[in-house]
Every structure is written in C-alpha cells, then in structure tokens.
Amino acid sequence: MCGIVGYIGHRKAAPLILGCLRAHEYRGYDSAGIATAHDGKITVKKGVGKIAEVDAKYDLEDMEGHAGIGHTRWATHGAPSRANAHPITDCTGRLAIVHNGVIENYAEIKKELARRGHKFKSETDTEVAAHLIEEYLKNGLEFEAAVGKAVARFRGNYGFAVLKAGEDKLVLARNGSPLVIGFGRNEVFAASDVPALLRHTREFAFMEDGDLAVIDAKGARFMHDGRPVRRRRMHVSWTADMAQKDCYPHFTIKEIEEQAASIPAALRVDVGRAAKLVRAAKRIHVLGCGTSYHAGLVFKHLLARAAGRECEVFVASEYGESAVMKPGTLVIAVSQSGETIDTMMAVRHARLHRAKVLAITNVVGSSLSRGADANVYINAGPEVGVVATKTFTSQVAVLTKLALAVAGRKVAVNGFAKKVKDVLALSGKMKEIAHALRNTDDFFFIGRSLSAPVAMEGALKLKEIAYVHAEAYSAGELKHGPLSLIAEGIPVIVIAPAAGETHHKLLGNIRECKARGGKIMALSDSSRLLDEGKWKVPMPPVSEELSPLLYTIPLQFLAYYSCLERGFDPDKPRNLAKSVTVE
After folding, report:
1. Active site residue 245
2. pLDDT at residue 168, rounded to an integer
3. Of the residues 2, 20, 289, 311, which is catalytic?
4. Which entry of 46, 401, 461, 578 is annotated as an active-site residue?
5. Cβ–Cβ under 8 Å, residues 368 and 338
6. Is the overall model pTM greater than 0.85, yes or no?
7. Which of 2, 83, 511, 572 is deepest in the core (most CB within 10 A)?
C-alpha cells in the first residue's frame, strides 16, 4: 500500500518527485524519502513522518540529478524508522530501490546473502531485493538483467523501481502491485497509480503482472518472461484539478459533497452488456472487500427482489476457501481501485475454474479491468481520501441499475438529483450531532433489508476515521444476543426509510433499545419513526431501491465530523491506506 514515484528526463528530479509523492500520500504516510542519481553517485534523503515533516527536516528538493525515485510508506516489515524508510540501498550505496508489496520468501534469501557477507541495516524485506540485485551485478550481469533475475526468485506481490548510479535509466518490476508509466516530452514518469502523475501527463501505459520495464527519457521498453512485449498507451480523461482539494479542508468532505454529481453520473452508466452476462449466468458470485463488500450486499437484496435471482456475496479474502465453483459461474468483482490484492487473488482463483468475470471499478486500465471479460466503470472521478465515500455510493448506484436491468426495469431517477442535494444539506445537523457525541466511544447501527448494509457501511466509516467502537446489525438480530450490550446512554443509529415492508418492524426494535437505555438517532422520512429519536434526521421520501444512496450520506458526515471532534485527520486514518495491495 506504499506509493512509488520514478522520474527520468530533462528536469531536476527531486522537486518533481516530491510533488508527485504529495499526491500519493493517501497510499501511506509513516515515512518518506527520495533518491537521485547525479555525477556517478546516489543521494538519499528519507525520514519518519508525513511528507511535509520529512521535507521540513531534510529539504527533499535540494538534491541534484535528472533521474530519481521516491516513496511514501505504509509499514509491512519493520516499524516506522529512518532505517526502514525507503529508498533502501545496497552495500555499495550505488543502488537504490523502492518497493510496494511483500516478499514472502525474503527471510531465506536474507540468510543466504548474509552468509555471502552482505550487511543489512533495516528490518525490511525490501533490503533483500537491493542486496540480491547487488549480488547479481557483482556476478557480471547488466543492470536490467540483474533486476530480472532477482525478482524471478521472489514469492509474493511487489512493485519495484530501481535506480543505479551511472545508468541513464530506471528499471521497474511488477507482480500484483500496480505500476503505471506516464509519458511526457523527453521525460518519462512512473508511479503506483495515475493521480500522482496527472499534473505532468495524461498518457499512460499500465504494467502487467510479471512485467519488467526499462524507462529512460525517450520512452519505455517492456519485457515479460524475458521476452519483449508491447503495452498499449492509454489517454486518461481525469484532470489534475479533479484530484485537488479546491477550497475544502480535507479530501474526505470534498468527496462527500461531490456525490451531488457522482451519484447521478453513476446512474447514467450503461449496464446493458453486464445485464446480459448476469441473465446468462447459472450462478452469480459477488466479491468485494470492506466498502465494496457492503455494496455487493445491496446488490444481493435488489437482485433477489427485482429479478428473482439468487447470488452469493463473498469477502474476497475468503473466496478461495469458501466458494464452490461450478460451470456457468459469473463472478462480479467490485473494487474501487481495481488493484485490491484480495480481490485480484479471488479473481485469479475464479479464472482457474473458468468463471467469467465482470469488473465493477472506478479506474480505467486497472489490473482488474484489464483481466475481466466485461467492465462497468462507476465514473466517480479520482477519490483521494483513504475512506471510500463517493465511490461507495457510485458502486451502489451502478449495482442498483444492474439489478433492475436484469429484471427489465429502469431506475426511476426523476427528481433524485435534487434529493441528493437535500441530503447533503444535512451536513450542519450531522456536525451538531457529532459534537453532542464527541465523548461517546460505543455506537450501534441497525437497519433491515437494504438498510442493513447501509448500517454496516456507517459503522465502518466511524471506525475507520473516528477510531471508536461501532457495531452494525440487521435489526432483527438484536434480540439474538447484541441487545445485551445496549446500556444507558449508548447511541443506536437507526436507518429507517418508510418505503418497503420492514419499517414497522423497526419501531419494535427501537423500543427494545430505548427500554434498555439506548439513545436513538433516527434517519427516516416517517414522522412516526422520527418521533422515537433523541436525534432526528429527517430524510426526503425515496423509493426503497434508491434509499441506500441517500441514507449513506448522513452517516458519512457523522464519521467525518466525529473524526474532527476527536482531533484526527480524516484523509490519513491510522494504520490504513487507500489501495490495499498486500494480502
């Protein structure tokens, strides 16, 4: 989940890399660093903390050279420290490397290299890669051949960028961890994903698993299994401004507010081909992680109700152990980034069993989109905040439209865009509620039917950025155990749209909680249900099938303002990063 940047060209590398790292910081922020090559030497500056802190201490821009690599880290091996920060060098100091991912067999290779006299300064698996490349260079291999031979020994997933003194090129390697190459005029860039480079180019090539790439100021060469291959260039329509904060204090609130445009855009997406695949499938498996899993649960409810079709929804990391694969299976893989390693490994498992794959993702050219039989893009635009906000509702919008399309129905969207704006206007109310609950550390979220996954998503958001304990349940499950945890003063957030057949049952669940001292926050368009709440969040009337899109938004506001009340940064939640590329 770390962020990699590389540059070679006619400009001074360090300032450019630093700017790209700032755009990459959502991928990791416990340490950062840059290495440049100049006059036959490698210079490395790195340290612990966010990029601004490291830059203030070490002046990252003040480094000579027109070729360099940079890194912002989310720790997997070794605690955040200057020694463990990237770039990592070899014994000679003439080779520097940055890495995203995990080398599973690093320990055995490290022992072998130590016996040969290599001295290790860090706790990282990355340092093994630096010393193994050094070993092959000592044995007479050329730069790119040494990198290729080294990565061929690794098990696990990785993205590497390697810089060597005296070489006018960078060598990149990818297996499971994304790397993109951007093309400018007499300059070439590399990064873990597209937004980091949008200030400089919109022309990209995407590396595939098993690829080795050599870049210089004139272009890129690709190899796969030792043979030259071609990788098609693609034009990305996103602009750099789309990934900037504008006047907002945080990306998180900006992206919540952007749902006024992103939800209607997602409801306009063409799902015709995807609907044909679903109709033709004998069985349907939906895969997702975290937020994407919740979106899959919404789809499951809608597909059953609207089209009379069953589907199973799997946490992607458990798919290989829990799914029974049979002929005629369609796998619907849901991933905002299209690079989530658990989802990618689950898709690989499905492919081995000859399942067809439909990808629901936000990123054109992502690994998931390139390996799928068909794609539906949610068109949410760049999402920089670590927690998914607009991409969740865009996923739900697309999956809602798909479920109804399978049944031969269309989404009734007349006036819906205004309702989204009406709910976004609840920001102030949710801020007041968050202030009232600023000293509360336990929350319960409940809902029924389509509202149960919304409750799960609301609880997840609160946990992710406010760091409080939050439970979510289908409301009928309270009486089977969780009700014992409801005590005096504990807030119970109830997602209770009037549409559908379950809202009257929620009234009983609310009263069960109130009888045990629970304080109700009611989100509803029913005055009867709102009257039960200590905190009332009046919602506009909406069809049951579209209710998850509206009822998610106040819960996002609650998490955002609860985070601020506790003095945390919502864009950089602890222990989390945006694109999860380690298993």
Report:
1. no
2. 94
3. 2
4. 578
5. yes
6. no
7. 2
